[in-house]
Amino acid sequence: MADRTPLMAANWKLHKTVAEAEAYLAKFLPGVPEDGVEVVVCPPFTALAACVEGCAATQVRIAAQNMHEAESGAFTGEVSAPMLSEIGVEAVVLGHSERRTYFGELDEALALKVPAALRAGLLPILCVGETGDEREHEQTEKVLRRQIELGLIEVDDDQLAEVVIAYEPIWAIGTGRTAAPEQAQEAVAFIRELLAERYPDEAGDVRILYGGSVKPDNATELMAQADIDGALVGGASLDPEDFAAIVAAAT
Ligand code: PGA
């Protein structure tokens, strides 16, 4: 089996001022393992620079929660990939279901955002996942196929290992209703099969995370699944002790 370093990401969403972010890092950083796991923190835009600085002497990498596909232009309110990498941001979450649901993020835009992130040297974390309704109507595989195919349409074989996929069933996000470990494994394994159809040699190297109500008490079981290579954590990542416990589950 490919040797994939687990990646544990804290998605703070619309939480934490600069002062709160600094207080969090002061508690969280001393306990971060030095190797065996990659840790990524995704603060709001305003706290990115402070977090880059705060984590500079550590292994922790900082990610934005969104970006625009253009490098620059008349796009009021947007931020580009080169602007993020200029300040030391190293990764970006793309296509989170909250962006898809509340802000009209489309697969067509993600098809451009993923290569734009790669061009700027950012690690894209592409989120995919079905709604509860789609799962009930047995549409999960169809939805995942569309999201993966379009999101990666411009990604070449030699770039694939620099992309991270996060499987986040929408019915499990912020609901306290985690996917059962076997259910999560099944969907993640399906995503790996989809990748293998187009990238037979590289699919085994891609890290696929699970996200959706990951907590300290369910992280170990989720991380034990063969194809799950880490977690994208929302609510539980807001508490430095809880996120540290979740990170520890990957080591
Ligand atoms: P949650 O969020 O852990 O609060 O369910 C996960 C996410 O949205 O990435």
Tell me what the structure shows.
The protein is of the alpha/beta class. The protein has one domain (7-248): TIM Barrel, CATH 3.20.20. The protein is built from ten helices and eight strands. It has helices spanning 18-28, 45-54, 81-86, 97-103, 107-119, 132-136, 140-151, 181-198, 219-223, 240-248, and strands at 7-11, 38-42, 61-64, 91-94, 123-128, 164-167, 207-211, 230-233. The protein has an eight-stranded parallel barrel, surrounded by five helices. Strand 6, helix 8 (181-198) and strand 7 form a beta-alpha-beta unit. The radius of gyration is 17 Å and the shape is globular. The two termini are 17 Å apart. The mean pLDDT is 96. The structure holds 2-phosphoglycolic acid. 2-phosphoglycolic acid binds at residues 11, 168, 173-174, 211-214, 232-236.
Q: How far apart are the termini?
A: 17 Å
Strand count, sense and barrel status of the largest sheet are: 8 strands, parallel, barrel
CATH class: Alpha Beta
Instruction: Please provide the ordered H/E string of secondary-structure elements.
Output: EHEHEHEHHEHHEHEHEH
Cofactors, ions, other ligands: 2-phosphoglycolic acid
Structural class: alpha/beta
- What is the alpha-carbon Rg in Å? 17 Å
Tell me the number of structural domains: 1
Give the strand tally: 8
> Numbering strands along the chain, what is their spatial order in the largest sheet?
1-2-3-4-5-6-7-8
What is the percentage of strand-forming residues?
A: 5-15%
Low-confidence stretches: none
| Annotated CATH topology | TIM Barrel
CATH architecture: Alpha-Beta Barrel
Superfamily (CATH H level) name: Aldolase class I
Q: Identify the overall geometry.
A: globular
Mean pLDDT: 96
Percent helix, as a range, is: 25-40%
Number of helices: 10
